[in-house]
Amino acid sequence: AQKVTQAQTEISVVEKEDVTLDCVYETRDTTYYLFWYKQPPSGELVFLIRRNSFDEQNEISGRYSWNFQKSTSSFNFTITASQVVDSAVYFCALSEAYNNAGNMLTFGGGTRLMVKP
Amino acid sequence: EAQVTQNPRYLITVTGKKLTVTCSQNMNHEYMSWYRQDPGLGLRQIYYSMNVEVTDKGDVPEGYKVSRKEKRNFPLILESPSPNQTSLYFCASRRVHTDTQYFGPGTRLTVL
After folding, report:
1. Cα dihedral angle (B96, B100, B105, B111), rounded to 10 degrees?
2. CB of B52 within 8 Å of any CB in chain A?
3. Percent of chain A whose pLDDT exceeds 70
4. Helix (H, G, I), strand (E, B), or coil: what is residue A70?
5. Which of A33, A50, B34, B53 is deepest in the core (most CB within 10 A)?
6. Nearest chain B Cα to A111, which residue?
7. Using a CB-CB distance cutoff of 8 angstroms, which residues of chain B are in contact with residue A52?
8. Are B42 and A101 a contacting pair at CB < 8 A?
């Protein structure tokens, strides 16, 4: 069965600090997909990134970067020079490619990030 | 604009009063699903549908029903709501042969 763990339930930083959100996953499939979603205070879920299990290349998008390490089953998310607008709950999610008829996303419990001015 | 819509966005009801939360997508997606979000648990899948007239249970289907009579719509039905169904509900959809799901804005349901 698939499982996602976000050990940090809440993180508080001061604006301009860098912050890393941890995500550890478990799966028996060799092919799977990992996601990060952002949930701002307004409540909607905003898709940030998708990574498949064969692509371990790290990715950078502006102030956001993702570090995928299969050896440690981790898919961590770093925000550089954080801003108040980054305050949100961030979810890591996993989808197995084969044993997953409903294309179910398994979510971690979420990490609430608070960026103070 | 490509989107998933849900109605209502907020609902307060009482135990046992049947309700329906609608979900509609305009992207011609085959897959649709419902999730509920609870503190510390992330989102959990309730039901999903692979296409019209094809539905199946997710992780937490008890107390819910769904139907898929048209490709664009996937309503969530609570025949006899109970307080433990107080939650934030999300509808999602995706195209076949892709794996990225797109979520609606959420429906916050309170059952008294």
Report:
1. 80
2. no
3. 95
4. helix
5. B34
6. B40
7. 99
8. no
Task: Count interface pairs A-B at CB distance under 8 A.
Answer: 60
Contact B43 A44 (CB under 8 A): no
Range from A23-27, A28-32, A90-94 carrying the lowest mean pLDDT: A28-32
Residue range A54-67, pLDDT digits in tens? 888 888 889 999 99
Give the whole-angstrom CA distance, residue B24 versus residue B86.
Answer: 22
Residue type, A101: A
Q: How near does any CA of chain A get to the CA of B103, in Å? A: 6
Q: How confident is the model at residue B105 (pLDDT cuts 50, 70, 90)?
A: very high
Per-residue pLDDT of B29-38, as tens digits, reads 999 999 999 9
The residues on A that touch B, with CB distances below 8 Å, are: 4, 9, 33, 35, 37, 43-45, 47, 50, 52, 91, 93, 95, 97, 101-105, 107-110
Nearest residue to A35 via CA among A47, A45, A43, A27: A47
